[in-house]
Design brief:
The complex is a heterodimer. Chain A is 36% helix and 26% strand. By secondary structure, chain A is α/β, with parallel strands linked by helices. Chain A has one domain: Rossmann fold (3-Layer(aba) Sandwich), CATH 3.40.50. Chain B is an all-alpha fold. In chain B, helix 2 runs parallel beside helix 4. The longest helix of chain B has 32 residues. In chain B, 12% of the residues are buried. Classes of the chains: A alpha/beta, B mainly alpha. Chains A and B meet through helix 4 and helix 5 of A and helix 6 and helix 7 of B.
Chain lengths: 273, 189
């Protein structure tokens, strides 16, 4: 392998360097966050409600612009100027796919087939409808090809959104609380599916610790101010109750003993059976 | 107090503008409002003016064109009406945007609990809709490797409106049930 080829392979897919973001009302959402994702890595983004997980994913997908800091995709800084460059933007939007928490936000075509074919058609892939059919079959949506997406159930919509994004052949997949609308069976299917995508870099946001262990090997944990509290092996994060408590990911409740005394325990539910 | 005064001023201005029919006076009022906004808020005034223009443009152009065609076929003058209509609607939209930017509506109606209650419900719905439409806009950008065509944007907008209506209805029903569960309505009535 030549040196440039090797450097492309080891180069992070996406990097954040001291990125901060404030909401339009001035409230801080993300504070000085730095990390990078390597090709093929499966990372779980953990944090309590309102800690900025969705905002961080939107920053990575260049949907919102950081107030300070820099985000680089394959070594190139994502700037408004680059995004205005038609070729660069086309490559970026094709290679970085995001599935939103609310599937309704993503669906607007007249049929499931057209919905999946939308991205591939815009990327200039040959026979986008046939391509869409293949993806629909893969996601168990083949009988809905002519059905308008709004008629699907929540779980089917979620699968459709995933099919839409994966049909474009992304290198980086950002999933915002992907199991929020799924029943346990569909959740199991999603976990297996993601596990099979070894070439894909995935960042999955969730606050469900029982599922986190199934969705990645590395954890990023945000605290309630949007600061990166932890970046390391997922097992280590899930084993540290104090860290999870700090990130609002553990709960405490009262225990009453037979002798009538009461005390509080911090609990973490880690196992998914 | 400041919020209530500003709300009262806005209400007086809206009613007063309804009595002004001469386009020249309306243009003078518009210039005065824009001048005041520029003096008080600087460059933000221009972005507010642009947003007001974008908000009313489609309806105003359609109504103006329809009236102009009707007046032309009927052999009547249309310029005064069209000028009056456009200046008045633009002025009202600009004042409404200025109001929403500069006052805390809940505090402004603090003295009237029933109105305050209504305002809180409406603002809650507006905030939820704003968030939803923002998400949809971002999802369209995220899913579009190239700039979406006008057709795609129309399809997306139509879908957004239909989802927004459905969700608003769902939220209104849930809100109604929540209020009923908390004893807000008299179930005997």
């Amino acid at each position: 392998m030549t040196e440039p080829e090797a450097s492309v392979r080891t180069r992070p897919t996406i990097e954040l360097e001291r990125v901060s973001y404030r909401y339009p009302d001035g409230e801080s959402a993300i504070e000085e966050v730095s990390f990078s994702l390597s090709p093929g890595e499966r990372v779980v983004l953990l944090g309590g409600n309102g800690c900025g997980k969705s905002t961080l994913l939107k920053l990575l997908d260049a949907l919102v612009v950081p107030g300070s800091g820099e985000i680089r995709y394959c070594g190139e800084a994502i700037t408004p100027r680059r995004l205005r460059d038609r070729e660069w933007s086309r490559r970026f939007r094709g290679e970085v796919g995001m599935v939103f928490q609310d599937p309704d936000a993503m669906l607007f075509n007249a049929s499931v087939a057209e919905e999946i074919a939308y991205g591939p058609a815009r990327l200039g892939m040959p026979e986008p409808l046939r391509h869409a059919q293949r993806w629909a079959c893969r996601f168990g949506l083949e009988k809905y090809l002519d059905t308008p997406p709004y008629r699907l159930s929540g779980g089917e919509k979620q699968r459709l959104c995933l099919a839409c994004v994966l049909a474009c052949g992304p290198r980086l997949l950002l999933l915002d609380e992907p199991t929020a609308n799924l029943d346990p069976r569909a959740t199991g299917w999603l976990i297996d599916f993601l596990r099979d995508q070894s070439a894909l870099t995935t960042l999955v946001s969730t606050q469900n610790l029982s599922l986190a262990g199934e969705m990645g090997e590395r954890a990023l944990i945000l605290d309630e101010r949007g600061k990166l509290l932890f970046d390391g092996p997922l097992d280590e994060a899930l084993g540290c109750t104090e860290l999870l408590w700090q990130a609002n990911l553990a709960h405490s409740h009262r225990h009453r003993h037979d002798d009538g005394t009461e005390h509080r325990h911090v609990h973490v539910h880690r196992n998914w059976e | 107090m400041k919020d209530r005064t500003l709300l009262a001023l806005w209400l007086v201005a809206v009613v007063a503008i309804g009595f002004v029919h001469d386009p020249a006076w309306l243009a003078a009022l518009l210039a005065l409002v824009l001048g005041l906004m520029l003096a008080l808020q600087g460059g933000v005034a221009w972005s507010m003016a642009a947003r007001a223009l974008a908000a009313v443009a489609l309806v105003n152009v359609t109504v103006s064109a329809a009236y102009a065609i009707w007046a032309w076929t009927a052999g009547e003058s249309w310029t005064t009406f069209v000028l009056r209509l456009n200046l008045r609607v633009f002025l009202l939209a600009l004042l409404a945007l200025w109001l929403t930017r500069n006052i805390d509506l809940v505090r402004a109606v603090d003295r009237w609990p029933s109105i305050r209650f209504l305002v809180v419900i409406v603002l809650g719905q507006v905030r939820a809709l704003q968030r939803m439409l923002g998400e949809q806009r971002m999802a369209l950008v995220s899913r579009s490797p190239t700039r979406p065509s006008l057709n795609v944007r129309f399809a997306s907008a139509a879908s957004q409106v239909s989802v927004a209506l459905e969700k608003t209805e769902g939220r209104a029903e849930a809100l109604n049930q929540g209020m009923r569960a908390r004893g807000f309505f008299d179930d005997r009535a």
